[in-house]
Structures are given as C-alpha cells and as structure tokens.
Design a protein that fits this description.
It is built from seven helices and three strands. The chain is mainly α. A three-stranded mixed β-sheet has the order 1-3-2. Strand 2 and strand 3 form a beta hairpin. Helix 1 runs antiparallel to helix 7, helix 2 packs parallel to helix 4 and helix 5 runs antiparallel to helix 6. The radius of gyration is 20 Å and the shape is elongated. It starts with 5 loop residues before the first helix and ends in an 8-residue tail after the last helix. The structure holds zinc ion. The site of zinc ion (ZN) has 4 residues, from helix 4 and helix 6. Zinc ion binds next to helix 4 and helix 6.
Length: 231
C-alpha cells in the first residue's frame, strides 16, 4: 500500500521540512516587518494604485479582502486584492506585498508569457490535483497500470502548474524590489532589507511547494515502474 510506504517518506521528508521552514520564515518576516513603518507614510493600497497608474494601467480594481496573507491578483476579473493589514497598512511589509501584487497586474497588462501559460493551465491543473490520487490509488489497488498512468499524467499537470508559478512569482517580486525605491515609497538600506526578506520568504514557500509536487511525481513514477522501480 503506497499510503504506508516508508519510501514515500524518504521522498517527501525533505520537501516537508523545506515547506515548514518556509512557512515559519514567511510568518516571522511578515510579523517583524509589519511592525516597521515605512518613512514614506503611504498605505499599501496607495502604492498599488500608484504603480499601476505610472504604468498606464487603468482597468484594474484594487479591493480590500478579508484574511491574513490573502493578498492576490485575479487576472480573470482584473482585480488586485489586498488583506486589510496590507491595504491600510503603512509598514515595510505592507508596501512590499502591495507592490508584488501590482507586479502581477503589470505582467498581465504586458502579456508576460509565464503568467498567460499559468492561466491556460489552471483548469487542467485544478482537475489534476483534485482527481489524480483517485486514479493512482485506484489503479494500484485494482492492479490496472493504465489507470495509474492516467493519474500520473493528471498529477504531472499540477506539477507543471506549480513550476510555472515560480517565474511568475519571482518576476513579480523583482518588479516590486525595483519599483519601490525608484518611486520613493521605500528607502534603500534598512527598509529595502525588510522588503527583500518578506518577498524572499514568500518566494521560498512557492519553491517548497514546487519541490514537494516534483518529488511526489518522482515517487509515483518510481512506484509505477516508470523510473526503473518495481510495481
Ligand atoms: Zn504573487
């Protein structure tokens, strides 16, 4: 039974450890730098609005959304949503997150290829991550290799999605790190260090998720005998 397979743990433990470290790091960086006010005195919502305005983007809405770290850009409705702490906040962390989300809106406006690919893959990836396990586990139980293979292909779609997420996220953060000091919202030096720490910690969570997905795929491939392993 793959559920109780010690080999599964060998594959997954590095990814789980990295995920936990990343989660802890992002929480502590956010906590620390949401208490450090930026000297510019502006809010996250203001930063997002200004970045979009200076890029000539006038068709993106900026809204407040409930929840902690619920910040995101929704390409379908062209809406940039910031959690209350970051929408109204004037901290180094709030401005960093707001500029990162504005970075996604700029990617969208400029048809940044990885973002478009990610959007195209989203429905299949969603289906894959919901149903791949049924096919894989069902296939193993019933001894039907075909079912296992369909499951692995579905799972691979989810893995591809988490991999294409990486350039999208790294690029949005790179834009934020470039624009914040350039527009005078964040001062170079200690404020910029805070922004970099918050955004890098967030990037590590995406990296950990992609690694976990990739290792899981390798495990399934190995167990299905497609990597030279036995069934
Ligand atoms: Zn992002």
């Amino acid at each position: 039974m793959i559920i109780f397979d010690p080999l599964y743990l060998v594959f997954m433990i590095p990814a789980l450890v990295l995920s936990l470290v990343a989660q802890m790091w992002v929480k502590s960086a956010m906590k620390k730098y949401s208490r450090v006010p930026a000297r510019s005195g502006v809010t996250g919502a203001h930063v997002a609005r200004e970045i979009l305005r200076r890029d000539g983007i006038d068709n993106v809405k900026i809204e407040r959304v409930s929840g902690w770290l619920s910040d995101h850009y929704d390409p379908r409705s062209r809406t940039l949503r910031l959690s209350p702490d970051n929408y109204d906040g004037r901290s180094v962390a709030a401005l960093g997150v707001a500029a990162h989300e504005a970075g996604h809106a700029i990617q969208h406006a400029r048809n940044y290829t990885p973002l478009l690919l990610r959007q195209t893959m989203a429905p299949l990836a969603m289906f894959g991550s919901n149903f791949a396990f049924f096919f894989i586990i069902g296939g193993f139980i019933l001894g039907m290799a075909g079912l296992v293979h369909v499951g692995i292909i579905l799972f691979a779609a989810g893995v591809a999605f988490s991999l294409i997420t990486l350039p999208v996220e790294f690029n949005a953060s790179a834009r934020a790190k470039h624009l914040l000091p350039q527009l005078g919202f964040i001062q170079r030096g200690d404020e910029m260090t805070g922004v970099i720490r918050v955004l890098n910690a967030a990037a590590l969570t995406y990296l950990a998720a992609a690694l976990a997905a990739l290792l899981q795929l390798l495990y399934f491939l190995y167990r299905a005998g497609l990597l030279g392993g036995r069934n």
